[in-house]
Amino acid sequence: RDQRRRRRRRHRPIVPSFVRSVRSCRGKKRAMEMPRGVPSIVAMEAMERFAYYGFRAVLTLYLRDWLGLSSSLAISAFEWTSSLAYASPLLGGWLADGVLGKYSTILWLGAVYCAGLWVLVVAAWRRSLGLSVVALVLAGVGTGGIKPCVSSFGADQFPSTTKGDDDPARRRYFALFYAAINVGSVASFIVTPLARAQLGYAAAFALPATLLSVSLLSFYAARNLYSSRKHRREKHSAA
After folding, report:
1. Minimal CA–CA distance to 47: which of 235, 225, 185?
2. Mind listing the pLDDT tens digit for each residue in 56-71?
3. Can you list the alpha helix ranges (DSSP code H) found in 67-200?
4. N or C, which end of the chain is more exposed by having fewer CB within 10 Å?
């Protein structure tokens, strides 16, 4: 009897331990799962970064060789558009936090951004300096305006937990998000100059404009998958 009991004790933990390991794997898999709306946000970021760095990859050459500006003036205009793109996040953050919310801010300023790139296509086709200035202003305000909203809106899709930065699904999201930035940026510096060399400036600008349009449409099409689209003002009680 003692030997039978010992054998039972030896073999008894095998099944429960296997079950625990399976449950543990399932729990880890569930923890790594991301909300359904996140892939569209990541894809949008990749296409938006392609659009931004794509038109800027040939912008200085466009201003100098196509519009006839001097090299110093073309470089100055390029840097001016950069400063506008890095100043307009203040506008985007204010709209997202105090007026429209992140979802509506991305849509509206994304539409401004998209309009700017299509105006740039028309400007290149007509060889118009005035339209180019309007296009660069719209693009600078739009790209900077959505910059503080997209990544944080994606993070808002995850349920609130006490894990914070230790949440594996949220860490995976940010890893994919910044990988999408790099992939879109690198691809734009390869493809857009080739398009300019083969098809001209209008076609080179039309490529990022098209991708940005697709990204906004895909973002809007997935609107029912987002956990929060309405802006909620937080009421702070005075201490």
Report:
1. 185
2. 999 999 999 999 999 9
3. 71-87, 89-98, 102-126, 129-156, 168-199
4. C
